[in-house]
Design a protein that fits this description.
The protein is mainly α. It has one domain. It is built from eleven helices and five strands, in the order αβββαβααβααααααα. It has helices at 2-6, 39-59, 77-82, 93-108, 130-150, 161-176, 178-195, 200-228, 235-248, 252-268, 288-292, and strands at residues 10-19, 24-26, 29-32, 73-75, 113-124. The strands form two sheets. It has a three-stranded mixed sheet. Strands 2-3 form a two-stranded antiparallel ribbon. β2 (24-26) and β3 (29-32) form a beta hairpin. α2 (39-59) packs across α8 (200-228) and α7 (178-195) runs antiparallel to α8 (200-228).
Length: 293
């Protein structure tokens, strides 16, 4: 609520979403923050820290946040209703709404703020199976494609500001097109190396740059987490997260890009979207009676 109280121009605010996997919860209260044992869930902790503490925290001062998670966001009701409310023909309705607010309010010339607030936390459970994670990532990528397409007038618009000239092109190049570009790069260098058209030295430089950039962004998110919030108090947890940062680019990232490519294909071919089943395990839930004793 603080951004709304401080500035009447605020129309939306979002908090940070963290992962419950590996934590202890009793009676609705978090009693201990920890890391999951499942490798897929550990890597997702790194992803969430990078997305929120590096991505949205950086876009917020520019008034260029493109997504407020449906799990944890607050909106000015009259503004949202005036913009048409949530769409029912997209699986990324939270991102699409935020992009539409940017587009319409900038076109109308109305002063507004859409902000990210890193202090309030919403805890959620991440998928621990490849099947559920695959469904989630396909849906996320398709939602991104739909949101960008439905609000493409914002791109380089005369009144677009930082969101139309920086954040929107960034989303197109580095989020929408990245699975195509990255997988095509791997294929190009693999074929080039096999046929002798590309040297081993060039291939290694490409891999070093591809992996190094991802590691740099992830480590930045971890450092921000450790310096500002220190949610994971054990040094072992921090070391595990740094290990996950280094290993993320070897297998998981490529697998994720394949799933995102499927999401783009489904969007491009007009395949009917479905939410999919999100199985929850609730291994973080303690017995509140047992805790009191």
């Amino acid at each position: 609520m603080l951004p709304f109280l401080e500035d009447s121009r605020t129309v939306a605010a979002g908090g940070i979403v963290r992962l419950l996997n590996g934590c202890d919860v009793s009676g609705g209260f978090l009693v201990r923050a920890g890391l999951p044992r499942n490798p897929l869930a550990i890597v997702q902790v790194v992803e969430y820290l990078r997305a929120f503490l590096f991505g949205r925290l950086g876009w917020s001062p520019l008034n260029a946040v493109l997504c407020i998670s449906g799990a944890f966001g607050l909106f000015h009701k009259e503004t949202v209703v005036g913009a048409g409310g949530f769409r029912t023909d997209t699986v990324g309705e939270d991102m699409e709404l935020v992009m539409r607010l940017h587009r319409l309010l900038r076109h109308q010339g109305k002063p507004y703020r859409i902000v990210f607030v890193p202090d309030p936390v919403c805890w959620t459970e991440a998928p621990e199976s490849r099947r559920v994670l695959r469904s989630q990532r396909i849906r996320w990528q398709r939602g991104l494609a739909e949101s960008l397409s439905l609000n493409r007038q914002l791109l380089f618009s005369r009144s677009g500001g930082a969101v139309g000239w920086i954040a929107f092109p960034f989303a197109v190049l580095f989020e929408f097109a990245s699975p195509v570009v990255e997988l095509a790069g791997y294929l190009f260098f693999a074929v080039g190396l096999a046929t002798g058209a590309v040297s081993l030295q060039s291939t290694l430089v490409f891999l070093a740059l591809a992996v190094g950039l991802g590691v740099l962004l992830s480590i930045t998110g971890l450092l921000l987490e450790e310096m500002a919030f220190h949610v994971y108090p054990r040094m072992t947890d921090i070391l595990i997260l740094f290990g996950a940062v280094l290993l993320e680019s070897f297998g998981y990232r490529q697998m994720n890009n394949v799933w995102r490519l499927i999401g783009l294909w489904q969007w491009a071919t007009g395949r009917k979207a479905s939410w999919g089943e999100m199985t929850r395990t609730a291994t973080w839930q303690r017995d509140p009676v047992g805790l009191r004793h």
